Amino acid sequence: MCGITGYIGHREAYPIVINGLKRLEYRGYDSAGIMIYDGKNIQLSKTKGKVSDLESITNASPTKKVGKIGIGHTRWATHGVPNDVNSHPHFSQSGNLVIVHNGIIENYDTLRKELISRGYTFKSDTDTEVLVNLIEEVKKQEGCKLGKAVQLALNNVIGAYAIAVFDKTKPNEVVVARLGSPIAIGVGKNESEFFIASDASPFLEYTKDVVYLEDEELAIIKLGRAIKVRKIKDDSLVDPNIQELKMNLEEIEKGGYEHFMLKEIYEQPKAIIDTYRGRMLPDSGIIKMAGVDDNLNKFLNAERIIIIACGTSWHAGLVGEYLIEDMARIPVEVEYASEFRYRNPIITNKDVVIAISQSGETADTLAAIKLAKSKGAFVFGICNVVGSSIARETHAGAYTHAGPEIGVASTKAFTTQITVLSLISLKLAKSKGTLSDSAFRMYLQKLQLVPNSVEQLLKIDEKVKEIANHYKNATNCLYLGRGFNFPVALEGALKLKEISYIHAEGYPAAEMKHGPIALIDENMPVFVIATNKGHYEKVVSNIQEIKSRAGKIIAVVTEGDVTVKEIADHVIEIPETEEALTPLLTTIPFQLLSYHIAVLLGKNVDQPRNLAKSVTVE
Known about the structure:
Strand content: 15-25%
Number of helices: 19
Number of strands: 27
Structural class: alpha/beta
Shape: globular
Radius of gyration: 26 Å
Helix content: 25-40%
């Protein structure tokens, strides 16, 4: 969950590496560091804190910024507390090798003890310093070059990693390797320069040609030569696959918004359109999805569908469960990927597993995918990042086309994941005959209107900000929903927790009386989804129960609602739509509310404490 950048070429490395770290800071921001090789010496700067703190240090020492080779790192701590010493890059004991690392070395303690017995000492508490010294020891014992030493050392490692290693004694190359954590290599014209990063965003303005290393692959990068990629296990050569990036630089800039999160909230109408464009043809009554069409029989003949995901993607999966079971009448189970692989699940070749992840790199979800495949299940991926590990590991899948999501608190990923799940549900329902042709066409037309409805909702931003001001000092909040909107209640509570640090819980509205009602008093804001479809009267009864106990009620209702308006303290109206599509609308006010509360409290919205965007470690 750390960010790695690197450069080797004819340009000054420092601006490329430091700006790359800024773009990758969503991956970790408790410490940062940079190494520049000036042709003779290694210049190292690192510090606890953010990339801006690192930049202040390097600006005070301009000589540390001169050189054509550099590697950098922004950290989310796993082993060792965030401090200057534990920050990356790390040196080997001789000072010749420098490494940056994303991941966890699970057997680091065993390796550390072995290295200590051979005379090594350690300055940090990190597993990364163990790894760089292991590479140095192998290099010394085997008398081999850096690439071979890295390959041999990694065969003794248990865990996950993406690494970049530099050797001062052979300063014309960088060795990169990965297992479980992403790494991308940008290729300059005629191999005159190379860029290294955890994703492609740091080098978008320099090259569109990129190589994504697969698991257990190692690349040796030398100026003026083609990338040499080898398998870590047996050292066999691999033909590198150079892909063309489709991402634009504008997509990863704030575009005038104060925060990435706000920008991404406002991008949702376009993101939803981009997700169903070319797939949904309402006038023709057709849904075309190659990943589903090519494997339709597997879906239709499935005894059950298992959805695996983490965090916000798990909430989208819960909406998917309601959608698929309601429309296509196929049994669905939704599992936390982080628990799925550890509870000895029963999986057969008659199961379809849908894995959902914004980044496509979530370690727990990847591990669950591999388990499901080993049991013979057909695995379908839903992710946002083209070329990501989950996209490559699954049998088939669908991209959400949300565009880059930089804010740690996921917003447009959630609504585009629900959009994909809606399309799949409708496709399966039509194919099974569990949905009439007229109902199918009606849903397509209603889904086509959703982006415009989201646009309308975004116009109430100022009203939501006023509501946020009323409740910014709350210490606890409750979110309630029923049916399709119960997962939205969970997601609303998660958003508030993530960025404002206010404790919040989501519950099915009917479960309130089975415990949470004991918490309700005049200091407890309760956010209730009470749209006019589904169990409206039941939710109104729940609201009356809250009101009778002096709870503060903020209700999300359908336009024109009268009953709830008379009871609630605050009301937010959403446009009319079908019940199954309401989660695409009801989530918007909660996103805005969480955002404004966090801003009013002075929190770092895009980089909330202790969190990282892409969880690439278990």
